[in-house]
Specification:
CATH class of the largest domain: Alpha Beta
Strand order of the largest sheet: 8-7-13-9-10
Bound molecules: flavin mononucleotide, iron/sulfur cluster
Number of domains: 3
Radius of gyration: 23 Å
Structural class: alpha/beta
Number of strands: 13
Number of helices: 17
Length: about 475
């Protein structure tokens, strides 16, 4: 195993590090002995003396929202497990980290794996799971080894295995390596993959994992960062923890900033306490020399794009207010009110040097490659979107192709088995809505009526 990569960067003054407290920390290593020097597994010791339902209550009181993408409240999800259930309950940690622009879970895994293991053991105790999996993408082979080592260490010390710390509670955690597909991050695709099958997402309802998950048993799927928060919630108490961040947007979350900023990177902030402007200008050192902001994709590549010159109206009635892009607090609710989402925390900054056609084509290439192919609108539509933007970038599209592009996207959205359909179509829908002029400017009007044009004919055939 090679040495653990550390960025060498100090946390920014505006950060509030809880989950990333030990990430990049001088002298810190991922061993159990190191973890125990600072109260490692103390929260587990506390948890096993509690009623499992009391732990869920703390997570509910904390208002912890999932950090994997949808922002669904974790305690509420746990509460969906059927009462008086006779089947085994499973817990799965989603470590697929596949959303472009997102790079946070891997640092927890590499540098503080016991934080995740402790969070998982407490969560399993709360939901009554005796078997748990960490589903990690194949591109993180070192991460998988680090986790396996951490699990073995925890086993040796009695934090895992039979009769954990004399509590009578048994738990095994297995690391399962995926083969590296975006769709394996979608929870039901992940479950199919874990069962050894092709990762075709399942239709919901009825296959909500909490009711019918792994091997059709009740299953909780949570993101790495979400599960790590659980031990800190127990430490502070749910109510106290909920004072971090802002109402309904509690706690801290890790934002991953990439693209056209001076200092891209990860930042753990209190949810809603930092604005987009503070994030880009203060924490990331601003835009590149001489450049101005064109757009931001605020929550991973599937989030709808925000234009730099938009004015967003958020709130209702007397609470309504107008925000520029710089004023947007980085929280779940405000980003949703601005027409996008906080998603996975991957903030992609686009300056005026970028061609919008190129950016959209880059995204469309990804989704065309990653569609699992199970439903027709997504399988065909994601490829059509890619083909059209390929032609826009090559200057071989006609202006009306932009309408076709929009229509293809809108015929995927809402018509598919899983939310990949929205993930793939929202970029196109929002780019066409907000940057139509720029996309049209990259087309060639002379191709409009040229029925003998080879590209136009090929496109027509492809759109069949
Ligand atoms: C196409 C697609 C890809 C996803 N990829 C991930 C992923 O890589 N990691 C993740 O935690 N959640 C991912 N999700 C969300 C999961 O389906 C699920 O909501 C999440 O793991 C639940 O955890 P949370 O409630 O803690 O956020 C993805 C969803 C979709 C639709
Ligand atoms: S929406 Fe796309 S990724 Fe999801 S099941 Fe259908 S084809 Fe597969």
């Amino acid at each position: 195993m090679s040495a653990i990569y550390k960025s060498g960067k100090e946390p920014h003054a505006k950060e509030h590090r809880i989950i990333f407290k030990n990430v990049d920390r001088e002298g810190w290593d991922p061993s159990l002995s190191m973890y125990e020097t600072e109260g490692g597994y103390d929260q587990l010791k506390k948890a096993i003396k509690m009623e499992p339902s009391a732990i869920t209550d703390e997570v509910k009181k904390a208002g912890l929202r999932g950090r994997g993408g949808a922002g669904f409240p974790a305690g509420v999800k746990w509460g969906f497990l059927p009462p008086n259930n006779e089947k085994p309950v499973y817990l799965i940690c989603n470590a697929d980290e596949s959303e472009p622009g997102t790079f946070k879970d891997r640092y927890i895994i590499h540098q503080d794996p016991h934080q995740l293991v402790e969070g998982m053991v407490i969560s399993c105790f709360a939901v009554g799971a005796n078997l748990a999996y960490i589903y990690i993408r194949e591109e993180f082979p070192e991460g998988a080894q680090i986790l396996e080592k951490a699990i073995a260490e925890a086993h040796e010390k009695g934090y895992l295995g039979k009769d954990i710390l004399g509590s009578g509670f048994d738990l095994e955690i297995y690391v399962h390596r995926g083969a590296g597909a975006y769709i394996c991050g979608e929870e039901t695709g992940l479950i199919e993959s874990l069962e050894g099958k092709r990762p075709y997402p399942r239709i919901k309802p009825p296959y909500f994992p909490a009711a019918m998950g792994l091997y059709l048993c009740p299953t909780i799927v949570n993101n790495v960062e979400t599960l790590c928060h659980v031990k800190h919630i127990l430490e502070a108490g749910g109510e106290e923890w909920s004072k971090i961040g802002t109402p309904n947007n509690t706690g801290t979350r890790i934002l991953c900033v990439s693209g056209d900023v001076q200092k891209p990177g990860y930042f753990e902030v209190e949810v809603g306490k930092v604005t987009m402007g503070e994030l880009i200008n203060d924490m990331c050192g601003g835009l590149k020399e001489g450049r101005s902001l064109k757009a931001v994709i605020p929550g991973g590549s599937s989030a709808k794009v925000l234009r730099a010159d938009e004015v967003f109206t958020v709130g209702r009635g007397d609470d309504a207010r107008e925000l520029t892009i710089w004023d947007i607090p980085m929280d779940f609710d405000t980003l949703a009110a601005c027409g996008s989402m906080a998603g996975s925390g991957g903030v992609i900054v686009i300056d005026d040097s970028r061609s919008i056609s190129w950016v959209l084509n880059n995204i469309n290439n990804f989704y065309a490659h990653e569609s699992c192919g199970q439903c027709t609108p997504c399988r065909e539509g994601s490829l059509w979107m890619k083909k059209i933007t390929d032609r826009v970038v090559a200057g071989k599209a006609s202006p009306s192709d932009i309408d076709t592009l929009d229509s293809v996207a809108r015929n995927i959205d809402g018509r598919t088995i899983c939310a990949f359909g929205e993930a793939a179509s929202w970029p196109t829908e929002s780019f066409v809505e907000k940057f139509r002029d720029e996309l049209v400017a990259d087309t060639n009007p002379e191709l409009e009526d040229d029925l003998l044009n080879a590209e136009a004919l090929t496109a027509a055939a492809n759109l069949g």
